[in-house]
Structures are given as C-alpha cells and as structure tokens.
Specification:
The structure is a single chain. This protein is an alpha/beta fold. It has 29 helices and 44 strands. The protein folds into 4 domains: 293 residues, Alpha-Beta Plaits; 185 residues, Rossmann fold (3-Layer(aba) Sandwich), CATH 3.40.50; 174 residues, 3-Layer(aba) Sandwich (Dimethylsulfoxide Reductase, domain 2); 143 residues, Barwin-like endoglucanases (Beta Barrel). The strands form 14 sheets. A 7-stranded mixed β-sheet has the order 6-5-17-16-15-7-8. Helix 2 crosses helix 21 and helix 10 packs parallel to helix 12. The radius of gyration is 29 Å and the shape is globular.
C-alpha cells in the first residue's frame, strides 16, 4: 500500500494515522450486514412466516370513528396553535414556544421575547416533548411494602402520607433546586405552619461555585450576566459557555453576532480547558490544560495583568508552575494577558461551574481590574443570599437520615439514589426513614427505595413559574391535561398546606402586585414573561482582598502518567441522566466524540499511548476508592494526564430505552456517578486506569463512507474543499478566498437546466463561522419530521436515520487540534444525481426547485443513495414503528407531526427543506391575498439554531436574507465541481487569531476538481 502523508484535516485518529483497522474498514464499500438483518431465516422458516402473515392480515379489530360533538372555542381543525411557556432546567427557566395540534403539543421552539432563549433552543428543549409522551412514564400512585408494588390513589396518598407528613415531627423535604417564586412562597408558608420541618434542595448540575466565588470576592452572593455582544475578547476557563451554560442560547446568539467578517468587528475567543467542548471548538485559540492547573493559570494572568492596568489591591504572586516551563503554554497565557490589557472594558473572563470558588473569585478580580464590570459583565443580586450549597445540603440530609432525625421524607423530583455523591450512600440512608415518598416523572431508582411513589406532572402539563438567568420571571402554562393524573410540585405543597386554590390562582397570588388586573395577566401569559422582574443590578462593588494559595498538583509538578486527573461532567445529551430514556438523545452523536448509545472515558493521544490503550479497550477506572469498568475513546485535544467521563448513563430504572432491570433491559453505558464523591464533584487527582483485557464496540458516526485506499486519499484531498476556512487577514486580502480553493474546467451538463423558476426558488445558507455543532438543529429536524430511532446495533451497521448530520473534522496536531463542524443535509441539487437514477421517478424536481420524494412510488432500489455524493439519503431497512402496535406504546404516536408522512419499510427518505412548513405559510398568505414575507418560512433546523448559522428563504427575492448571504464572496457550494448545483451554500469559516499565536501554514492549495 502506498504511503499517505499526514492529512491536514481528519475525521478521527484512525483515519489520520491510517491504522490497520481503518484500512480494513475502508476496503469494504458497504458496512457489514448493510443489506441484511442480524439474522437471515432459512427457506422453510420464511415460508412459515409468510403463511402466518397472510393469515393474520385478514384479522383486524373493529374500529369506530366518532366526530367531536362540539369543537373547542378558538380551535380550527388541522391548524396548529402556539403557546408561550417555560421549561426549568438546573434551576433556571428558559422561555419557549410550544406548537400544539388539536390539543396535542408536538414541537418546541425558542421564545424570541425571552432573555435566556432569544428564540434559540438546546437538544434538551427539543427532546422534552418526547419525554412527555414516553410510555415508560409513571402512570399512577404506587405504594411499596415488603418488596412488593401495589397500585394506590391520590386520596390514599393524601390521607396516608401527606397529611401526617406536613404536621409530624421529623418531617423533611428534598426538592430539586428551583427558582420558582410560587414554590418559594409555598415553602415559606409551609415552614411557618410547621417550623419543625426541614427543607433541603439538591441539583447535580449547578453553578454553586460561581455563587461562592462571588462571596469570596464581594462578600455576598451575586450572579454574573455576560454581555458577549459588547466583548471584543472572551476568555473561557474550563467553561462550555456557548452550550453548557444555563443561558447558553442567549450567549451563543450574542457571540455569533460578532462572528460576521463582513461587519469587520470579529471578536476573539480564547479557551483553556481539559476536555474539548463546543466552546473550545469555536475558539480562535485553545490551550488543553488539566482542570487542576486552571487556578495557577488564572493567578498567572492576574500577576501579569495587574501591574499593566495599575490595579488596586494586592495581585496574586506569579506562580512558579511547572507547566509554565512549556513554551507553548506560557506564550498562550502571555498573549491572553496582552490581549486583555489591550481591550480593557471590552473583554470578559469567565470560569466554568466545575472550577472551585477561588478561581471564580480571581476571575471577578480580573474582570474588575480590567474595567469590564458594568460594561461586558453585569452583576445581579441573588434572591437567596444565605443558602448552603447543594452539595452541603444533600450531605446534611443524609447525615440527618443516618442519625434517625428524619422520620418522613418527601422527595420532589430528582433522583438522588442515582445521582447523589456515591460516598454519601444516600440509598442506604433512605432505608432508615420510616416513611418516604418520591414524586417524579418515572418510577426510577429513588422511587423503588421509597414507600410511596406519585407521578409528577410534566412541565407541558401544568402551570408554573421560574426565573431566567437574569432573574426575569417566566410563566409556564399547560398545553394538555396531565396524561397520567400527575401533580406539579406546586400542587403537592399546596395540598400539604390544605390550600384548595388551583395552581393558576397560586401563581396569580404570588405575582399579584406585578400583574394586577385581567389585561396584564393575559399579556404575561401570552408573552411568557412578567416584565420588570429582573434581579437587581448591583452597582460597582469593591473587591475584597484575595489570598489564593497554590501548592502541589495545582502547580503542575507531577508527571502526566504518574497520577491521572479525572474530570466529571454532565453529558451533552443526557444531562444528569434524566433524559436517559429518550431515544432521540441516546442516538444523537456527541458534539465532539460522535459517540451514540454509550459513554466512554476520554483519553488524549499521548496519554493513551503511555498507558497502552486504544479505542474500545475496557479499562478499570479508579478514583477516590471507587472504580468502574468503562471503554476508552481516544479524543484529540484532551489535556495530557487528564481523563474525562460523562454522567447520566448506566441507569437500572430508566425505562425500555435507557435500561430497566425490572423489564430485563440492560443499562445503556456505564454509571460514572460511582466515581463522583463529595471530594470529587468535578475533578480531582489520584485516578488510575488499568486494562481489563475486554473490548467494547462503540457506535460512532464519523468514520463512515471510507472506501478503499483510492477513496480514502480522495476524501483527504477533498476535506479542505469541503470545510473552507481562512483568517481575517486572508479574508481582508481576498473576500472570495473560499471560491478560489477549487479550480475546475467549465461545468457542462447533459440536461438542459431550467433558466428560471416562476414564483419561488427555495435555498439555504449555512455559516460555518457561527455553527457550534451543538446538534439542536438535528433534534429539531427529528421532532419535526417524524424520524425514527434505530438503536445501537443499526448505528453500527451505518443505518442511522437522521436527515441532518453534523460532520466534525479535526485539524492540526492531535494533542492540540482545532475543530470544524459542518451540518450536512440534502442539498436540493438542481442537477440532482439521485433523480437521474431512480427507475420509478420517486424523487423528482418540483416547480419551485425542491428535490421532492414520493414515498408511495419508492421501491427501495437505493440507487439514489449510491449516487448521492453527499450521502444524506436514508433507507428504512425495517418498520421502525412496529412497537407502536402494542397498546402501552400507542401514546408515542401523539408526538408525531400530522403534516409529515410516517415512512415505512423499504422506503428512502431525506431532508425536504420542511416542505410542509412552506406549504402551510403559502396557504396562509394566499388566504389573506398577500405576498410571502422574508423570514416568514423557517425550516425546523433554522428555527432551533441559537446562533443563526442556518438561514432559509426564497432565492428569487433579491432582498431576502438568504439571497444576500448566497451572494457574498465567502459563499461556496459543497462539491460544486461536480456540477450538481446545490441549493444550499456554505459560508467559509473565518478565524480571528492573535498575531503572536497565529500558525503560519501557508495558503491552502487549490483543488483541481
């Protein structure tokens, strides 16, 4: 085999290093078993099944179709309605818009009027509607006694537990941390009525370290609100600011607003982190650094910056850290300090939630001396000034249970038996409580250890309220009656108090002063927010004198392979594990690893080489006296000497998707909460990793379509053409640099293309400079278009069904690479190769230039998929909705969009540019005898995107945003040299490197297509 030089762009380390396993896979044009199922029946069995099928086809139940005798007021059959509501996650409310079809909520979008959402969403928001229709949700009150489960009623629970709990000694509450003003008011009333009652809160994912850091810096709890739109320089320290922050949709939108090179005011992002994040992928410069060394890095920045800005107070002494002996790390930090000083008042430094309070205090000092406070950083007064941290509260409750001080416990939401720090042994302590009740969406691990379980109402089923990150009170309203008779936390506490008012009245009582009168109340419900309720802005506050000592490992004095650092983080898809039973999220590829249906320990290339491990090796990972067996996944850019695990997997009572011991369903992934202790909540030293000799298959989606040596080499030549990027200097020199990356002869066609399209000509623009690869667009597409989940085995065969995939490419040194993310869906080609080979005309061009699918014509030859150069067509090898024939699963059908056909076995499918949305708006405009307005039609992916990277519209409208974007010199067609004339164009990525750190790589060679 000929030697292939190291590629500049690469999809995985296996591809970059041209490993034997990769070469073996590349020799196969198709996946193993791509054309057949896991098992192939013999002829005799086949005839038996055919005979039985013919007999059963004549058996069908007698159905009755009965029309509604009275139509609900204001409802038009077949026409969706939209309602503003709020989803609370991690104690922060995000304003959303729910789309409902005839009383059935089916789709979630961002609320443009909400300060945390500003119209964007995350994968959690998009998938939450699937959670409501999950057939594994709790369906009623249950009582557990003697290891047996008995069905019960709300009346029995109210009289048998709740009444005695609210008045008895030794009563306690464990609630998920909530920002609901109404719940806070009920809590106050409950404690006034029962002073002996103890109330505890616990959130696995929280920002307590930032809160405690503010106390160190200012003497009181303050919340930082970032104004990224005003920041020229942004520095993130172990912080996934653009995807992992509670206000990520708003922050991502503000950040992306400064990434338009045509505007001439690009910001610059520096990221220092131990493991790759979406924010790190968007950074202009990224430094992989162990989390424990972040404190020394911030202290160094303080020591360098303070003298240059004549800061008051005592700066931190410059640490003599071993890692600063690395010329790369020192040059990086010196450049960051230089850039911060040059942009005083227009810069931001922010630390992640996992960093200790001391780091957050130092960050506050840096922002203070740089003059950022009051400009790019707003400080707001926290509502609760004196509360203990969530980690302290769960430890206090566990100690009280072990001491016999808690006789009756009501757990509102959460799953502490699964996600509490493992050294607390919460489950064992819970067994010592005489009466315990758990209110939750599922009968989960905690429910099974309690005496009572009651179903919680989903946030789409109940009234509620919560505060946004800036404190704005956001309102939630029910779009459907509780499917299984659940109650909200507000209803449960109100019942315990003996209050008869419904939740709506309780919320009105709480906010009566702000929204007195019917008109104001209706406006608040309509908008989803109560104006003027933001947290109080704190004027400039004097910083306290800080003394943050550094010692030991914080100075980086221990070799990387002697003692590993373990970092623990919530999963980008499953969060803290609460979404384990949602197939959309399990099958969604991780932003960085592209791993589905599993978790793994992330190990950097050099650390993996030193430890002798490779992808799929099952290792015993030990830390803090705890250990788990988990497969290895080598991730470029992982800091040396640091390994990363994600939470949320290994559930034993999640459901039929995420794992259920009761139903014989194996857990998905490994429970890494066993490694998380009170001393190791986010990161810590002393971890070890040892091979077990076992191997696990990991279902990743990136290394697909690698075909023999010739194909692999051609792909490598093509990648710089697929992902076109340059620097600001290159862009200023030649704004059309992206178009010059490909030289080809004149493009000729056998077919006569249409000279014009009457009416509309739909197209899309995708800005690679704004895409974070977060995946909200992909989940939104899945929800909108009824795309099925196929499972891990099918993903391993290459049969995933997602219409929109996000390709991820690494670039540069595997120890410290850059990342490029590129969303790919059907390009709606004018000269569509798929149309030319379909023998039955199942895929044809519409009068508006769309590459349409006629499912009833498709006979499944798959010629179109073979002929598609973008590999975006999906084939239904099976009927993936067969499970809905079971009565228990029929509720899943309620999530389907009635405007989109549910496909069946043997049919090809792909992106349609959301043609159903196009038609709906066209009909609406026709009924009102008006023209379509630009931006009126938004595809599902466009509407979900927080950064505005995706823009859809009419190319015939010369004033439309999509037309203006496609006319930019930066726009280019993917594989345009093939003359397929795609309707989707990409805008090349333009980075803004600092001259002191810019790597001189020379101009990209032109590709001769």
């Amino acid at each position: 085999m000929s030697q292939v030089k190291k590629p500049k762009f690469w999809r995985s380390l296996a591809e970059r290093d041209n490993t034997e396993d990769f070469r073996e896979r590349a020799q196969r044009e198709f996946f193993v078993k791509a054309d057949e199922g896991p098992t192939v029946p013999g002829r005799r069995r086949f005839l038996q099944l055919m005979g039985a099928s013919l007999a059963l086809s004549g058996c069908f139940p007698e159905d009755r179709l009965l029309p509604a005798s009275k139509r609900p007021e204001g409802t038009i059959p077949g026409r969706p309605e939209f309602f503003a509501t709020t989803m609370e996650l991690g104690g922060v409310g995000v304003g959303l818009i729910a789309r409902s079809y005839e009383g059935r909520p089916i789709k979630i979008e961002g609320n443009p009027a909400h300060t945390t959402s500003v119209g964007g969403t995350s994968v959690f928001h998009q998938a939450s509607v699937l959670e409501m229709y999950d057939p594994d949700r709790s369906k009623g009150v249950a009582r557990f006694a003697g290891g047996k489960r008995e069905s019960s009623t709300w009346a029995e629970f109210d009289s048998g537990f709740l009444k005695a709990w609210a008045t008895g000694d030794g009563a306690a509450v464990l609630a998920e941390g909530s920002s609901s003003p109404t719940l806070a008011d009920l809590k106050r009333r409950l404690i006034e009525k029962a002073p002996q009652l103890k109330w505890y809160d616990y959130q696995t994912v929280n920002w307590d370290n930032e809160r405690e850091g503010a106390k160190l810096a200012f003497g009181r709890a303050l919340r930082s609100e970032l104004k990224l739109a005003l920041a020229d320089v942004v520095v993130t320290l172990d912080c996934d600011l653009l995807s992992g922050h509670p206000s990520a949709p708003a922050y991502a939108r503000d950040f992306a607003g400064r990434r338009t090179p045509e505007a001439g005011n690009l910001n610059r992002l520096y990221t220092i982190e131990s493991a790759f994040s979406s924010t790190g992928g968007a950074a202009d410069h990224r430094l992989p650094l162990r989390s424990e060394l972040i404190k020394a890095a911030v202290a160094y920045l303080d020591a360098v910056v303070s003298p240059q800005v004549n800061a008051t107070g005592t700066p931190q002494p410059s640490p003599q850290a071993a890692f600063l002996g690395d010329a790369t790390a020192k040059r990086f930090l010196d450049t960051v300090a230089k850039d911060l000083v040059a942009h005083r008042g227009s810069s931001i430094v922010v630390a992640g939630s996992g960093q200790p309070p001391e780091v957050h205090a130092l960050v506050h000092r840096l922002n203070g001396i740089l003059g950022n406070v009051g400009k790019t950083l707003i400080l707001r007064e926290e509502v609760e000034q004196e509360r203990a941290t969530y980690a302290e509260q769960i430890a206090q409750l566990t100690a009280a249970m072990n001491a016999g001080q808690v006789k009756s416990l009501l757990i509102l939401g959460g799953n502490p038996a699964y996600n509490a720090p493992s050294d607390l042994q919460f489950g064992a302590a819970l067994a010592k409580v005489q009466q315990a009740a758990h209110a939750s969406l599922y009968e989960d691990e905690t429910s099974q250890l309690c005496h009572w379980h009651v179903p919680l109402a989903h946030w789409l089923e109940s009234f509620g309220d919560a505060r946004a990150w800036d404190g704005t009170v956001s309102l939630a309203q029910p779009l459907i009656a509780p499917l299984y008779g659940g109650r909200s936390a507000i209803e449960l506490i109100a019942t315990a108090l003996g209050e008869k008012e419904p939740p709506l009245a309780l919320i009105q009582r709480t906010h009566g002063e702000r929204i007195a009168g019917e008109a104001l109340w209706r406006r608040a419900i309509h908008d989803g927010i109560i104006e003027g309720t933001e947290l109080e802005v704190v004027p400039l506050v004097a910083l306290k004198e800080l003394n943050v000592p550094l010692a030991g490992r914080e100075l980086g004095g221990i070799a990387a392979t002697d003692e590993l650092e373990l970092t623990i983080a919530p999963d980008s898809k499953l969060y803290d594990g609460r979404y384990s039973n949602l197939g959309w999220l399990q099958e969604h590829p991780d932003t960085i690893s592209k791993l589905t249906w599993d978790n793994a320990v992330w190990v950097g290339p050099s650390t993996a080489a030193a430890l002798g491990v490779t992808d799929g090796d099952v290792v015993t990972l030990s830390a803090g006296g705890q250990s788990v067996d988990i497969p290895v996944l080598i991730i470029p850019g992982q800091a040396k000497g640091s390994v990363r695990v994600h939470l949320g997997y290994g559930r034993s009572a999640a459901g039929q998707i995420g794992g259920s011991k009761a139903h014989g369903v194996a857990p998905v992934g490994v429970d890494t909460y066993q490694l998380r202790t009170t001393k190791l909540l986010s990161f810590g030293a002393g971890a070890s990793l040892k091979k077990t000799g076992k191997f696990a298959k990991l279902a990743t989606t990136q290394d697909k379509h690698s075909i023999d040596d010739l194909g692999a080499n051609y792909i490598q030549e093509r990648i710089p053409v697929l992902v076109r990027e340059g620097t600001v200097a290159e862009f200023k020199k030649d704004p059309a640099f992206a178009k010059h990356r490909v030289h080809h002869p004149p493009l000729l066609s056998l077919w006569k293309p249409p000279t014009s399209y009457e009416g509309h000509r739909w197209g899309m623009s995708i800005d690679l400079n704004k895409c974070l690869g977060c995946g909200a667009c992909a989940i939104s597409c899945q929800a909108e278009n009824n795309i099925p989940v196929v499972g891990k085995e099918r993903v391993l065969f290459g049969r995933e069904m997602s219409w929109l995939r996000i390709d991820r490419y690494f670039k540069g040194d595997p120890e410290s690479p850059a990342i490029a993310s590129q969303p790919i869906s059907c390009q709606q080609c004018e000269n569509a190769p798929c149309e030319q080979v379909c023998p039955v005309g199942a895929t044809v061009h519409s009068s508006e230039g769309l590459n349409d699918m006629t499912y009833n014509r498709c006979i499944g030859t798959r010629y179109c998929a073979n002929n598609c150069p973008y590999k975006v067509r999906r084939f239904n090898y099976f009927n993936y909705h067969m499970d809905m024939k079971e009565k228990a699963n029929q509720v899943k059908g309620m999530v389907f969009n009635p405007e989109v056909t549910v496909r069946f076995r043997g049919v090809m499918e792909k992106c349609t540019y959301c043609v159903q949305r196009i038609q709906a708006v066209k009909i609406e405009a026709k009924n009102h005898r008006r023209k379509l307005e630009d931006g009126e039609i938004r595809s599902a992916c466009e509407e979900a995107c927080s950064t505005g990277a995706i823009v859809f519209g009419d190319l015939n409208d010369t004033q439309s945003q999509v037309r203006k974007l496609q006319d930019l010199p930066r726009a280019y067609a993917l594989l345009g040299q093939l003359n397929v004339r795609p309707r989707t164009l990409y805008l090349a990525k333009v980075t803004n490197p600092h001259p002191d750190l810019e790597q001189k790589e020379g101009a990209e060679p032109a590709h001769h297509g």
